[in-house]
Design brief:
about 90 residues, alpha+beta, two-stranded antiparallel ribbon, two-stranded parallel sheet
Length: about 90
């Protein structure tokens, strides 16, 4: 995969883009069935914007995010109601 940063190149010469920074070594973990860290590819992730206690709305948004290619969906749990809804959401979501 080549990332173009809009830098001008030399005419007639194919240049290999330099890395902006060296990646630090990290260990790989699994988030569900998605590998994160180490030499795993970059994963697509997002966060819901619904009130987590609204189980149906949160599940709908998770379904929309995964249908659009999101591999990891995060949800906020700022209250006890949200925490109680989380187990239902985790059980019913992909």
């Amino acid at each position: 995969m080549t990332v173009q940063l809009g830098m001008p190149g030399v005419r007639g010469e194919q240049q290999t883009p330099q890395a902006l920074a060296e990646r630090r070594v990290s260990r790989q973990i699994m988030v569900g069935n998605v590998a994160v860290g180490g030499d795993a590819p970059v994963s697509v992730q997002s966060m819901t914007t619904t009130v987590t206690a609204d189980i149906n709305a949160t599940l709908q948004q998770i379904a929309e995010l995964t249908a659009s290619g999101c591999q990891i969906v995060r949800v906020a749990v700022p209250s006890q109601d949200d925490a109680e809804a989380l187990s239902v959401i985790a059980r019913k979501s992909q």
